[in-house]
């Protein structure tokens, strides 16, 4: 899956026939791994499902009829499989070797999400066909089979159906062995309205009218795959296609949206041959679709169903009315991510959710690598540092977890989709690829994919393949970083110049944001691959124990972790830091951002004074790399927020940012320029939003001018800046402005733009208006998948208000978010708060609503608030002292006098 938070980020192949695929890959009963923490008894194994579904979209129910070919592997009187929200009418079991059907008694257990089917006598081991006739529910959030409503091209109400099964929701669609290692083949048949298009993993094998305005579409047999990868959709769709590497790639959209699909389609066609080559195993299915759904989820943007990726429209369609340049890059990276899963996840699947990172860390890393390959001008190497920092934010807390973790409940599986699985996974893989070298690493991946295709794997299988490919010494590093939580802290000793080389002692400890003394006394230890440069060649070593001597060619300024591939924090001495700050303008963008982010984290956690990192932050030239500037402005804003309550210091920071970066915005201009660099088009909205927040008069005047014009002419604001300019207006809105925005939201029919406008209503800084947005979210007006986004928007400026509101309307709000995301929504809302008074509120919520085993996200929110609030006073004191000692002088580009 592509997480929601991050969105806010040619070999010729022979067409293998599906039947050849399934025959060649049928699982054997004795391959079932009894050591996995399954929630089902290991008494039977499914091989093939033949499923017919008849949705009744108008009444939100469906009928199902499934025949499951299975093998009983131990004598048993019952079969236990997964099922939720289903009513069974028939259960019969027919032995493959003759004999009449046995009637079964079905007992459903809501708590364990299982159906137990009891037969009159003991079933002998052997092959059987289990037939179940049942009915189920169509949901209105993205779990199981779900409906998304929208206004069609003609402005009429329309409803499409889609499925979302990861991690454990296939069981809402079909009674099944719904765990990743029960791979089987699938024949799906759907009875849908004759004027609709039905889509599944494989192309349709046949389609025929069946009367009553319906048609029956039978899809080709799938290859052996996990249940969570099955997909079905039906609606008033159109499909655009291209040929690429001997396969048909397609984008499926609501009718009328075809022209917005070409950006994604071109990306898909470009990436497929690149992956065929990289993975060494060609994409095995005859087609690859990406299906767009209107609406959104608070927890994911896209899902890698094999052959039929699902993506919400806002992350797939390039709409000139609303899509920003940054979102366009997001469309590309989402395609790259979900397509990487077609191999890492779909062809080779983790055996159990403990190894979810194998899916998500790998796809996140591949997405970044692919973007760097095809779009080297987008600054994706700096984005990789952003991922590292995102991971370290969580990984520096006591309540973090190892990359490979224990998952024992459905909720824990849902909660595993976090910054550790995605961003730490990505960062660790980037470090290991750099250690192995890109060619060896790619060869290791090819071996791994070939060895485990159509099967399941574990993390250790990947390390074994890498060692076999020649990455000697990789396993010990990889094991340290994936089985232990936390972040190594490398302290750099005094550097000495000896015979033209820099000689330095590195001391290893552990970095912690919330218990630095405790980890300093008993740090974990890692084999850390470290690179360093002192103006000459890059020296490499791997730490082994507490101290490591390093000899680096050259006697220039010592930079540890050039290129920022390492997953660790580096603590320099004050003179070393000062030397790096002086040389910052000439450093590579990836190191500029890496140094500043590393230093800020150390200062914020109390490992060094704030001044050390503020010297670096203020040393970044405002005329520097657009990708870095964009993030630097965000760093200043983080400090601004931490100074809440100290108006003078906040005004000082706002003035510095306006003075430094205002000229950059004037140079870029308020409107997009044809042919400008993509990174400039991404930087512009960031600067507009930031300067708008600080009430820069020029930005506010332009926002007001555009808003007035837009009220009568929807095209008055360029589409790629619409959400940005209206965001400035929404944040500073009074009641009349808010009403005008609301009026336009109501009148807008395009689903992506409409959702964007409703969410803007939640951005008002004015608390009374924020309350109105919350009340509006609980009405039917915004639409079923928009309301939760409005509440999240309110939480940005008013976290406590949003949380109190949700707690007093919990049952209603739960209907507005994915079932699989309910235990994480509160963590999301708390993300903008550093108020310790929130801690008992969160604890009370967790105790009352979550099982003890499922409270980790809330504990992480609490740990973060506790650690940040404990540092607030020190951060304020040190920052205000630094601000007065370094008065901002002159215009941008002329701030040299700042550092004393
Ligand atoms: Zn993913």
What does this structure look like?
The protein has 900 residues and is an alpha+beta fold. It contains 29 helices and 31 strands. The strands form eight sheets. It has an eight-stranded mixed β-sheet with strand order 6-5-9-3-2-12-15-14, with no helix packed on it. Strand 2 (44-56) and strand 3 form a beta hairpin. The protein is globular, with a radius of gyration of 28 Å. Mean pLDDT is 94; it is low at 8-31 and 891-900. Bound molecules: zinc ion.
Number of helices: 29
Q: Note the main sheet.
A: 8 strands, mixed
For the secondary structure, the number of strands is 31
Tell me roughly what share of residues is in helical segments.
Answer: 40-55%
Estimated radius of gyration: 28 Å
Low-pLDDT windows of residues: 8-31, 891-900
Overall mean pLDDT stands at 94
| Lateral arrangement of strands in the main beta sheet | 6-5-9-3-2-12-15-14
Q: Distance between termini?
A: 49 Å
Shape verdict: globular
Helix/strand structural class: alpha+beta
* DSSP strand content: 15-25%
**Cofactors and ligands present?**
zinc ion
């Amino acid at each position: 899956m592509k997480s929601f938070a991050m969105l806010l980020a040619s070999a010729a192949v022979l067409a293998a026939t599906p039947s050849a695929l399934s025959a060649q890959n049928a699982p054997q009963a004795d391959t079932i791994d009894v050591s996995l923490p399954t929630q089902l008894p290991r008494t039977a194994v499914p091989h093939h499902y033949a499923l017919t579904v008849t949705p009744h979209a108008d009444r939100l129910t469906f009928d199902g009829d499934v025949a499951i070919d299975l093998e009983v592997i131990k004598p048993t009187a019952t079969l236990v499989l997964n099922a939720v929200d289903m009513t069974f009418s028939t259960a019969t079991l027919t032995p493959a070797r003759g004999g009449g059907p046995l009637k079964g008694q079905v007992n459903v257990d809501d708590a364990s999400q299982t159906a137990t089917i009891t037969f009159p006598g003991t079933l002998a081991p052997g092959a059987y066909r289990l037939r179940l006739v049942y009915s189920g529910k169509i949901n209105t959030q993205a779990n199981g089979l779900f409906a998304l409503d929208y206004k069609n091209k003609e402005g009429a109400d329309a409803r499409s159906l889609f499925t979302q099964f990861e991690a454990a929701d296939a069981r809402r669609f079909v009674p099944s062995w719904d765990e990743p290692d029960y791979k089987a083949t699938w024949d799906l048949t759907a009875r849908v309205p004759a004027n609709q298009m039905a889509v599944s993993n494989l192309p349709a094998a046949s389609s025929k009218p069946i009367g009553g305005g319906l048609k029956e579409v039978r899809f080709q047999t799938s290859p052996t795959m996990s249940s969570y990868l099955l997909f079905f959709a039906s609606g008033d769709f159109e499909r655009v296609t291209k040929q690429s590497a001997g396969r048909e790639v397609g984008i499926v959209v609501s009718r009328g949206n075809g022209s917005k699909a070409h950006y994604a389609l071109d990306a898909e066609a470009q990436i497929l041959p690149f992956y065929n080559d990289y993975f060494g195993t060609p994409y095995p299915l005859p087609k690859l679709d990406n299906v767009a759904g209107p609406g959104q989820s608070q927890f994911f943007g896209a899902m890698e169903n094999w052959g039929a990726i699902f993506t919400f429209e806002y992350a797939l369609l390039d709409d000139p009315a609303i899509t920003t340049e940054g979102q366009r890059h997001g469309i590309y990276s989402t395609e790259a991510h979900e397509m990487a899963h077609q191999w890492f996840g779909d062809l080779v699947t983790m055996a159990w959710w403990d190894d979810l990172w194998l899916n998500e860390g790998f796809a996140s890393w591949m997405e970044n690598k692919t973007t760097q390959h095809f779009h080297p001008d987008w600054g994706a190497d700096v984005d990789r540092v952003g991922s590292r920092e995102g991971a370290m934010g969580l990984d520096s807390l006591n309540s973090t977890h190892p990359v490979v973790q224990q998952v024992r409940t459905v909720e824990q599986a849902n909660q595993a989709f976090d910054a550790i699985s995605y961003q730490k996974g990505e960062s660790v893989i980037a470090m290991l690829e750099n250690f192995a070298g890109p060619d060896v690493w790619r060869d290791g991946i090819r071996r791994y994919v070939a060895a485990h295709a159509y099967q399941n794997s574990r993390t250790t299988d990947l390390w074994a393949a890498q060692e076999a490919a020649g990455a000697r010494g990789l396993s010990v590093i990889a094991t340290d970083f994936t089985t232990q939580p936390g972040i190594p802290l490398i302290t750099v000793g005094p550097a000495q110049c000896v015979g033209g080389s820099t000689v330095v002692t590195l001391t290893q400890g552990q970095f912690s944001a919330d218990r630095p003394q405790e980890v300093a006394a008993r740090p974990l230890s890692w084999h850390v691959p470290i690179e360093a440069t002192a103006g000459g060649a890059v020296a490499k070593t791997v730490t082994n124990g507490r101290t490591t001597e390093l000899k680096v060619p050259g006697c220039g300024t010592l930079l540890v972790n050039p290129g920022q591939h390492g997953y660790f924090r580096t603590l320099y001495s004050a003179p070393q830091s000062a030397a790096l700050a002086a040389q910052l303008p000439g450093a590579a963008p990836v190191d500029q951002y890496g140094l500043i982010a590393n230093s800020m984290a150390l200062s914020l956690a109390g490992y060094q004074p704030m001044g050390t990192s503020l010297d670096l932050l203020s040393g970044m030239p405002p005329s520097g790399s657009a990708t870095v500037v964009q993030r630097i402005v965000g760093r200043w804003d983080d400090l601004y927020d931490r100074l809440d309550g100290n108006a003078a210091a906040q005004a000082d920071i706002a003035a510095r940012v306006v003075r430094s970066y205002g000229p950059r915005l004037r140079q870029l201009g308020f409107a997009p320029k044809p042919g400008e660099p993509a990174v400039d088009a991404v930087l512009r909205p960031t600067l507009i939003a930031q300067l708008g927040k600080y009430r820069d008069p020029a930005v506010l005047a332009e926002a007001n001018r555009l808003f007035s014009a837009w009220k009568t002419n929807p095209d008055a604001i360029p589409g790629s800046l619409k959400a940005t300019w209206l965001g400035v207006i929404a944040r500073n809105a009074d009641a009349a402005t808010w009403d005008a925005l609301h009026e336009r939201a109501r009148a807008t029919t395009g689903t992506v733009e409409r959702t964007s406008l409703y969410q803007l209503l939640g951005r008002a800084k004015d608390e009374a208006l924020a309350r109105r947005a919350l009340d509006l979210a609980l009405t039917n007006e915004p639409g079923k998948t928009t309301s939760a986004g409005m509440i999240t928007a309110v939480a940005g400026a008013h976290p406590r208000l949003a949380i109190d509101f949700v707690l007093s309307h919990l049952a209603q709000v739960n209907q507005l978010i994915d079932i699989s995301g309910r235990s994480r929504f509160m963590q999301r809302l708390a993300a903008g708060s550093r108020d310790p008074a929130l801690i008992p509120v969160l604890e009370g919520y967790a105790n009352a609503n979550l099982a003890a085993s499922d409270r980790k996200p809330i504990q992480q929110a609490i740990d973060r608030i506790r650690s940040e609030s404990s540092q607030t006073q020190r951060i304020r004191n040190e920052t205000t002292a630094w601000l007065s000692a370094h008065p901002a002088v002159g215009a941008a580009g002329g701030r040299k006098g700042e550092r004393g």
